[in-house]
């Protein structure tokens, strides 16, 4: 039975990780095509992509969009969660539902909607438009994470702060935000990773300056190459780094 | 800093539920008041209204001569010590205690000095740099008290602050609260459902039930001369003997009593019945007895009224033998009408 469990575990990990492992391995392929057989290791593809200006520009764009849109999404989510947790308004449940609803809509639909709306109000497809799109998809997530973290304990501390003379912004800044720091950080990092490898919205809402996933897509159109694998590996590395940071700092602290 | 508090015909309703009905209360400056009652009696609602966390449906709250009914908590001369302490977990004790002063724009040096002074008062100055999670329940309690008092409120509101502590610590904190209140002179309004705690610390007790005040008086008053059956029962055990008037005497199931009382329920505390007293309750047989440390708690069945049971607290050393027949006497009788008014 024990052996079987281990076999099962191994099978699951293989199933989940094999594609990524293959991707990473063939990014070192010393040949023109990232397909078996493996002809030996080289770093030349990495050198090539790091020297590629378009690609590096897209990488910086992606980082910028991810950081800024996540900051905005976390801030808005935090404010919405604090407000809805503090006061019971008529239709509070409905408001919570509406805030979380975009999570259930596919990115394609959201992207199309944004594209049409931006056309109406005159916002050109750009990194700004993409950033706004990423706020739209990440705000529900941030709201849900922060709202779930506000418990009775927090509420009474906030009440105590008001009782001691704090204005509403002081309550949020001095008490609520520090007390919710682990969930705010979790929300930020999750938003960051979602924005970092989001493709559909970025594809629909960018034109000249593009994000990394869009750039990779255009690379793929010219055929498979170990260079795309190398880019993919880099993107994966960043995501892994974020998750590991999260795991080592926040989640470990939370479980203590 | 201290102020008097006037509560004028305050009523409060939550949707269809009436939590408070026509509450009138005059609290003098520097008094230690306890709001006492079972859960759901409205005592916490009243405290929230005084603190500004709730606006009453009707009536007004006047603190220090100023109408505070619609003033936000942060602008009131009140602070609250919360049931779950509500300390700020990310701040050390000094910053917790200094928070109120910081919000009032007091400079860093001045507020830190004041915070240390307050921590000194509650005996925790050595822990100023620690975070709340490193403290025991009783210590957190003291920090909450220091924090609430650091801003020199006129009125301190205490919401069942000792409920989570064990008995010994609770007694100790009661004494400390009382001492600190004497020292700072602030008006304290303390909510509890523990009548012993209420008597131990209060200058005056407000006994509450179902959203109204049953009795407002000193602990002696409330315990010895209860005004209603509810407050009589709530303050401690009570023997009830129905009596009616017959000429100059009172007649009860125990037989005629040499008292001129009238019609109603004769209420006697268990410790006010014994082998001597101001009037005889006739002979009774001891049914059972249990030793409680400070006294023996005994159940007597009066020979004249076999369906009544009298609970009697006899002093240590007065060893009753089960089955023995003795004459019982009562003192400090209180007569209350049947309907509790």
UniProtKB/TrEMBL annotation, chain A:
Coiled coil: none
Keyword Translocase among record annotations: no
Species assigned in the record: Thioclava marina
Keywords, comma-separated and alphabetical: Cell membrane, Membrane, Transmembrane, Transmembrane helix, Transport
Name of this chain's protein: ABC transporter permease
Xref: Gene3D superfamilies: MetI-like (1.10.3720.10)
TM region positions: 6-28, 58-81, 93-115, 127-151, 171-192, 230-251
Upper classification of the organism: Bacteria, Pseudomonadati, Pseudomonadota, Alphaproteobacteria, Rhodobacterales
Membrane topology type: Multi-pass membrane protein
From TrEMBL, chain B:
GO molecular function: ATP binding
Residue ranges of domain ABC transporter in the record: 5-235
InterPro entries assigned: AAA+_ATPase, ABC_SmlMolc_Importer, ABC_transporter-like_ATP-bd, ABC_transporter-like_CS, P-loop_NTPase
Highest taxon of source: Bacteria
Pfam family, one: ABC_tran
Keyword Glycoprotein part of the UniProt annotation: no
Protein name, entry field: Spermidine/putrescine ABC transporter ATP-binding protein
Lineage, broadest ranks: Bacteria, Pseudomonadati, Pseudomonadota, Alphaproteobacteria, Rhodobacterales
């Amino acid at each position: 039975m024990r052996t079987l469990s281990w076999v099962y575990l191994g099978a699951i990990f293989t199933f989940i990780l094999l594609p990524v492992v293959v991707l990473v391995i063939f990014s070192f392929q010393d040949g023109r095509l990232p397909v078996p057989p493996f002809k030996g290791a080289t770093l030349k593809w990495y050198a090539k992509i790091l020297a590629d200006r378009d690609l590096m520009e897209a990488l910086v764009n992606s980082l910028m969009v991810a950081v800024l849109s996540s900051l905005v999404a976390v801030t808005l989510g935090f404010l919405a969660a604090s407000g809805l947790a503090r006061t019971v308004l008529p239709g509070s449940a409905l408001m919570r539902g509406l805030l979380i609803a975009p999570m259930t809509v596919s990115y394609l639909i959201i992207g199309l909607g944004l594209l049409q709306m931006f056309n109406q109000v005159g916002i050109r497809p750009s990194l700004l438009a993409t950033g706004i799109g990423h706020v739209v998809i990440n705000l529900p997530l941030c709201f849900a994470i922060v709202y779930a973290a506000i418990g009775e304990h927090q509420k009474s501390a906030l009440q105590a702060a008001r009782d001691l003379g704090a204005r509403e912004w002081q309550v949020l800044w001095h008490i609520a935000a520090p007390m919710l720091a682990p969930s705010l950080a979790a929300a930020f990092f999750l938003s960051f990773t979602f924005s970092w490898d989001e493709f559909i919205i970025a594809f629909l809402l960018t034109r000249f300056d593009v994000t990394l996933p869009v750039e990779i897509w255009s690379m793929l159109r010219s055929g498979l190459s170990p260079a795309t694998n190398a880019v993919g590996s880099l993107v994966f590395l960043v995501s892994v780094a974020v998750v590991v940071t999260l795991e080592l700092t926040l989640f470990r602290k939370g479980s203590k | 800093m201290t102020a008097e508090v006037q509560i004028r015909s305050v009523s409060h309703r939550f949707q269809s539920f009436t939590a408070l009905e026509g509450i009138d209360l005059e609290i003098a400056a520097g008094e230690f008041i306890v709001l006492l009652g079972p859960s759901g009696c409205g005592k916490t609602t009243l405290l929230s209204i005084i603190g500004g966390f709730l606006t009453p449906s009707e009536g007004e709250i006047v603190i220090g001569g100023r109408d505070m009914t619609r003033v936000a908590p942060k602008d009131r001369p009140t602070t609250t010590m919360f049931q779950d302490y509500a300390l700020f977990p990310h701040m050390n004790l000094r910053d917790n205690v200094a928070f109120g002063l910081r919000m009032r724009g007091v400079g860093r040096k001045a507020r830190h000095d004041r915070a240390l002074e307050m921590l000194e008062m509650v005996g925790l100055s050595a822990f100023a740099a620690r975070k709340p999670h490193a403290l025991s329940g009783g210590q957190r309690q003291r920090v909450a008290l220091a924090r609430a008092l650091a801003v020199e409120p006129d009125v301190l509101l205490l919401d069942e602050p000792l409920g989570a502590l064990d008995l010994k610590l609770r007694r100790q904190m009661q004494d400390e609260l009382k001492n600190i209140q004497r020292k700072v002179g602030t008006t304290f309004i303390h909510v509890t459902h523990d009548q012993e705690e209420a008597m131990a610390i209060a200058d005056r007790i407000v006994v509450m039930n179902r959203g109204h005040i049953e009795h407002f008086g000193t602990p002696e008053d409330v315990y010895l001369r209860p005004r209603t059956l509810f407050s009589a029962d709530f303050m401690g055990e009570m023997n009830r003997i129905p009596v009616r008037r017959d000429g100059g005497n009172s007649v009860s199931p125990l037989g005629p009593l040499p008292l001129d009382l009238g019609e109603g329920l004769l209420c006697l505390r268990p410790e006010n019945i014994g082998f001597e007293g101001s009037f005889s309750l006739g002979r009774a047989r001891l049914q059972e007895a249990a030793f409680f440390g400070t006294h023996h708690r005994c159940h007597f069945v009066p020979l004249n009224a076999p369906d009544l049971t009298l609970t009697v607290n006899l002093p240590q050393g007065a060893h009753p033998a089960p089955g023995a027949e003795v004459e019982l006497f009562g003192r400090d009788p209180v007569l209350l009408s049947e309907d509790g008014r």
